[in-house]
Amino acid sequence: MKTVKQLIQEIDINEAFYQAVFGIEKEGLRVTSNGQLALTKHPQEFGNRNFHPYIQTDFSESQLELITPPLPSIQESYNWMAAVHDVALQTIPLDESIWPISMPMVLPDEAIIPIAKLDKKEDVKYREVLTHKYGKKKQMISGVHYNFELDDQLILRLYENQTDFSDKNSFRSMLYLKLTKNFLRYRWLLTYLLGASPTVDDSFFTDQEIPQKYVRSIRSSHYGYVNQSEVSVSFNSLEDYVHSLQDMVKKGYLSEEKEFYSAVRFRGVHQAEELLTKGISYLELRSFDLNPFDPFGMSKQTMEFIHLFCLYMIWIDETATEDEIKTGEEMNGLTAMEHPEETSKFQEEGLQLLEQMEQMLQSTNGSKSAYSCIQEARKQMVDPKRTIAARMISGIEEEGSYIAFSLALAKQYKKEAVKRPYNLTGFEQLEMSTQLLLFDALQKGIKVELLDAQDQFLKLTFNQHIEYVKNGNMTSKDSYIAPLIMENKTVTKKILNAAGFRVPAGEEYTTLVDGIAAFWRYEQKQIVVKPKSTNYGLGISVFKQTPSKKDYERALEIAFKEDSAVLVEEYIPGTEYRFFVLDGEVPAILLRTPANVVGDGQKTIKELVAIKNEDPLRGEAKHRSPLERIELGEIEQLMLKGQGYTVESIPEADSIVYLRENSNISTGGDSIDVTDEIGESYKQAAIEMSRIIGAKVSGIDLIIPDPTIPSTQEHLGYTVLEANFNPAMHMHAYVYKGKGRRLTMGILKMLFPELWEMETTNQ
Amino acid sequence: MKTVKQLIQEIDINEAFYQAVFGIEKEGLRVTSNGQLALTKHPQEFGNRNFHPYIQTDFSESQLELITPPLPSIQESYNWMAAVHDVALQTIPLDESIWPISMPMVLPDEAIIPIAKLDKKEDVKYREVLTHKYGKKKQMISGVHYNFELDDQLILRLYENQTDFSDKNSFRSMLYLKLTKNFLRYRWLLTYLLGASPTVDDSFFTDQEIPQKYVRSIRSSHYGYVNQSEVSVSFNSLEDYVHSLQDMVKKGYLSEEKEFYSAVRFRGVHQAEELLTKGISYLELRSFDLNPFDPFGMSKQTMEFIHLFCLYMIWIDETATEDEIKTGEEMNGLTAMEHPEETSKFQEEGLQLLEQMEQMLQSTNGSKSAYSCIQEARKQMVDPKRTIAARMISGIEEEGSYIAFSLALAKQYKKEAVKRPYNLTGFEQLEMSTQLLLFDALQKGIKVELLDAQDQFLKLTFNQHIEYVKNGNMTSKDSYIAPLIMENKTVTKKILNAAGFRVPAGEEYTTLVDGIAAFWRYEQKQIVVKPKSTNYGLGISVFKQTPSKKDYERALEIAFKEDSAVLVEEYIPGTEYRFFVLDGEVPAILLRTPANVVGDGQKTIKELVAIKNEDPLRGEAKHRSPLERIELGEIEQLMLKGQGYTVESIPEADSIVYLRENSNISTGGDSIDVTDEIGESYKQAAIEMSRIIGAKVSGIDLIIPDPTIPSTQEHLGYTVLEANFNPAMHMHAYVYKGKGRRLTMGILKMLFPELWEMETTNQ
Fold this sequence. Notes:
2 copies of one chain form a homodimer.
Chain A (H helix, E strand, L loop, with lengths): L3 H8 L2 H4 L2 E13 L22 E3 L5 E5 L6 H18 L4 E3 L22 H14 L1 H4 L4 E7 L1 H9 L7 H19 L1 H7 L43 H13 L13 E4 L7 H4 L3 E7 L11 H16 L6 H16 L9 H17 L4 H15 L5 H12 L2 H18 L12 H13 L2 E6 L4 E6 L2 E6 L10 H7 L1 H10 L7 E4 L2 H6 L1 H4 L4 E5 L9 E3 L5 H12 L5 E5 L4 E8 L2 E9 L2 E3 L6 H8 L21 H9 L13 E3 L11 E4 L6 H14 L3 E8 L14 E6 L5 H4 L9 H9 L1 H10 L1
Antiparallel strand pairs in A: 1-3, 1-4, 1-5, 2-3, 5-7, 6-7, 8-9, 9-10, 11-14, 12-13, 12-14, 15-16, 15-20, 16-19, 17-18, 20-21
């Protein structure tokens, strides 16, 4: 029989060997700011636990279970884990955080520890059985589960080149079974490296006591999260596994199959019985303590090391026998109970394993990061002080107690999560609106698939209902023609004008000659001359006085440099407001002002700008942000000069100094929410315009000279400048002044009204 | 009181002076190929005459009235006239054309001449009254009505700078009344220049006879289309006009106000009474004979001359008195009855008028074409043989009779109209799909406004129902997300694949390194390597054999030169078909083959190509066409070389020689309609794919190895390559082989189902 090693080498598919699918499930207790178990309910913002794919509760109402979907790379899994943490940490009350280690804080009386308040009776019942058998406290031990699936095409290629198996399912199960057996034999190494539950409060154990102050992993030891000793399941063959597991349930040693707390669980089926026909689809590795040094419980390097470890378990020629598995379990138990700063009893075997893993990398053209994973593990094997558990001891000693140590980290991670609420950690490369929408979908429990990150293309699923979203608010709810209308300023104006709305009078010209010939139409007016399609202010001339023919011609020439069509429009004085129209409502209105500082009579403009730029909303390097820093470049300095200032000038107290003419957010402008200040007559006008265009989502720009006077049919209070498709949402969410408006949730509500209806029904 | 001339010069708005709005209504009899009045019904393709804005019937069922909307330039009016003619001529039976002169052919018995079969009883009643009063024959005289409106802003500017009128309406009415009076005084000049009804068959008059063989205009003479002599209406003032007209009706001399056949009619009101409050909105000039030398009854130059004439009528200081008007009418009657080859009795006044018109041009910076209009008129004034009527006489003499002359022209215009059915005359600059859609809308009677020609943006209106269409089939019926999905090939594939459709296996890579590392996935397959977004075949490599690693890498490099993302896909052998999906149906399936010729054993490839290129479907210079000519460029010659040919080779009889690898129509490929040959199972698949994507209109490209075998769930007969938004429609309408499919009418039906429901109800 050819080994995997032989097959890989024979068919020369090194790259394929490293292809796999990963999924993480991470438990963690909610903790209050003074280190108590949070007794608040699972936040209702998380929607319904009956279906939530990412945020669940485990045993206890206070025990969050954060879940990633299966993803084809470690980087993606880690990013998802980060994102789900971000959502969880920002949603739970501000004074709560997530306990970052496996062993719990000092717990209240068992009676007070709340069992998860689930809808399904059998789920609650199961937790009651566990309470009875293990006590609630033991169920509060948390950990990370690591789901691992080999690439399907890799398995196919290996299968096609071997001769011992005549069906792919059996071949695959063989691979996973081999992996499992060897994993159980050698997993002590992972406990050595990743063990991270060195101690626990004395109150945790009522009838026993850990014999030493620190161990590598209480959780992985027989003091930890293990079945009662009469539970015995064989991994000899798939058949033996299924039958012995069924036997344990039949005998009543286990209430259900899922009560079997093995380090490895076979996945892809609902009941073990099905494994006999379907085989093993993937593995769930369950033996990992929370790593408190990583904000999400497991570092990327650890995820990669576990991957390499799993690959090595199928790479080696031998498959562990039942006896060897037993030996392995004993070694693991011993390792778990070692003092973290002690050299491992099995150091020699450990170094040998790492040596062989490195050889595997050499044979298969392993990546740089794979090598450095192994090298780091070797360093820890040689020097136990580098292990997580040993580093935790330093931290605990420094902070005075593991409680203080853990709480400090919990608070630190919470602080980081709430620092930039406009970013979704792990997805910072996406547009901000997409980040916010993703955040809301993860929070609400809508399944998300990132179809194309570069293109901001999401697939959202709830039950059988699928919706696609591009750039945060381009959806199936909008008609195709609406954005096409809005894309064409002339067409938009014609349509809105025909429907009776006031638009700036004006015409489009496609030749300079035609434009010049029409001067007579404008010579008595304030006008704007602008290229038809440009959006960045290039080529625009504004005449706040009636133009001379010469200046008018010059303005046309400038505009024609930017576009083959030029608009000449009436200039409308007044303040411009952005109305965000969403499904027949106006949930947000924004006033944008040019970059500015307010003097205090003491600081220079340069200093005032520096202070204003400290606002985290104005962004940091590598982070997208809802506002931008004010630059002091050529344009700003010119603008200052025009007002008689330099950057060193000290403006009088309360005087506003503008640094830009344009009010774009992108050039340091301020955003001011005025949703509640603008009257209904204007909102209705924006809604009606949106309806005329046929848009569900649009950004309507109105010039309003005085918003305190209601607009009427006789005295229209506004002129409409533009209607924008795919209007920005993030600038409404986090504003310089006023109340932030979360529009992304409104988009989800438009797409999945049933989710909100359900909520109403449930209340 | 300041004159218009003074005002124009004072406020220096020469360009404004020439701004106006024009609308044309043109009557014309349908004639059979042997010169008889066509007795067929008004074609039902023209939809419903209750609302048709462009194609109506006048007095007789056989008398088409073709109408343009009001448009702001002569060029646009002329284009519309051309387009409406195109639609009319292509829709009436193939053996019918439109009689191009004002006086009818030899008419059948009065009893046989059909009155227009209109729905409204009052409309039929009115025609019966006319029959009784004038006889049917006189009602068959046809002409052109010219609607003329001064630019509103021009009127405003003039109004603002005068002091005699205190409301704009009165000022405007004064202008139009002045224009009218002077027009009536001088219109003999237009009759001289434009008179075009020199003779008629003897059978036309039963109780009188034209005293000479040829006159300038029977129609404009007292033998023509005039009221009975007791009808007398005053143009002295608006009040006098209204009251005298009402008096004529009251006295029973006119059955209705509209029976008043004046050379000028005041428009903008339903009843004359309203003129007293609303004033005159615009004028309808009704005195023009059909010009047989123009396919649409009036040349562009004539339209411009009339415009200049009208402007001159308000430019001159004087306003004709009632006596002068009477003189003018007499001069007009005399002019109409002159022999066309005779010098005008009023040549001196004519030359003077033209001289003064030219002075007006000099004062107002008139355009070159305006000058040449005047110059041409002057030539005709000096040399009567250059007038239309005189030129008609030459034609009549040449053809033997006015009947033969007229019929020959009618047939010529018909021939030109049906020659390029894929073009809509007057709108050739639009995309072909938009031309076809416009054609259908004009035919069906849906009101069309060209919002942006460059952008192919149409506004369609029926009753209160408005729809917008861009590029022929981008509409409100499609959802916004559907084209966004189709625009992204990777997303489309993921979505169709997730829905259970077979797509070419493959992946997207954003770096060369990633692409190369995935070689193992493809080394055993036929593949295509292509840039993600390019559409023109650039950077695509096809491996019909399994690729070597080196060739694979090279292909990736080539593709990455075109795009930052590259797709590697399974190559699917078989034939590619384009399924056009429209609103849940597949009205057209097209097979496209590369440019080719079929040998006859005698001609060279060069000769065969030349013959194939003669097909009018392959286009002419300046005309868009559904197929393209085959080039004999570098690529074609290389392709021939590969097959052992040169352009001078003589292929064997019936052998097919391909000149291109790619099957694009744009490089001379053939289009073959196979809609009826492809089975329902494939159509259903395409419909379902379109549904999954959420598209109402899409072009689904399927590879089908054998379309004779139905596709089943177990044995899928196809692989889907792409889904295309805004799929081309013209290539289905006019095909190289097979039946053309008119998809544009289906688009209209999707947009305005009520129009089709109405039809069903009416039947």
